[in-house]
Amino acid sequence: xxxxxxxxxxxxxxxxxxLSAAHGAIxxxxxxxxxxxxxxxxxxxxxxxxxxxxxxxxxxGMPVLRQAVAEANRRFWGLDVDWxxxxxxxxxxxxxxxxxxxxxxxxxxxxxxxxxxxxxxxxAIRRAGGVPVPIRLDPPDWDLPRxxxxxxxxxxxxxxVLNSPMNPIGKVFDRDELxxxxxxxxxxxxxxxxxxxxxxxxxxxxxxxxxxxxxQARERCLRxxxxxxxxxxxxxxVGYVTAPPALxxxxxxxxxxxxxxxPPMLQSAVAVGLGLGNDYFDGLKATLRQRRDVLxxxxxxxxxxxxxxxxxxxxxxxxxxxGDDDHALCRRLTAEAGIAAIPLSSFYEDRAVxxxxxxxxxxxxxxxxxxVVRIESWLGQRQRRAx
Length: 387
Known about the structure:
With 387 residues, the protein is of the alpha/beta class. The protein has 15 helices and 12 strands.
């Protein structure tokens, strides 16, 4: 077995989901939404099963979806994109990330990764021969440590991975932070791999700004989107990459030797989804904002610290007074309280930050309310045992 995979083990998401199933827990760990799939998109997929070819679609993706991605870039972000040379369809955003790393990294190339970070980044970077260079963001404000980033850049630095809105902490990078990063790309001849799968899930006054929209970054960014997140169909595994031709070319070559294509009927349905009216996209935000507020208010009502969440569908909650090991606490919560969460330390390579848990609030409101009741009961039992 390759040493990268020999040492990475089973993902914490799979571990907690298995434990959740074993104990009949409410699964607020794994990040999949419940009850939010747009009927128009599901109906389009059903129609496509009878109307669209079941054979290999074009390697770059079906023209109808590539055109829809290009139009969505223009409509939502003001980006002028050539669908024929600047859009690639992939089997999910995780594949898109791997394509980028495999295509653009040479052995020993360094990649700046802001942590906490989605766990596939480090594995895919190492398997591509690269070296992840973690830059830690710390609670509660998750400020960008600008001097540490500057100091981390060496002649071997090749890429910066930017995830905004950011899983697991709900941070949305603002224009000033993006301008700082765009300047680094330009000054040091770097490329940004931009994981923007939560691009349509921001709240309150937070505004998602693709790094690619900044003029000095336009030719240095690969922008990754996800139908799974935008249309609450995570099992479909349809992703898309928008990038200038010089970057997309090698990424497409990596893609053709990984998955090669993505199911055509799903591509056709996602194209329909990207053309939905603003009422759908506004409704997505409103629904998730309401669910966020239900869970946040419930946890705060129990005296639990809840950090701000400007995007994604995750809340980070503090564990002060509940234990020093967030991973062990997650196991206990699942087994004893019937609530599955994810330890924040799992998103750091050195597990340095163990002070918070991540809860997914993209669930039915009734389940979020039930989860709060279960945690309240569990806390009460703890207090009684301590007397």
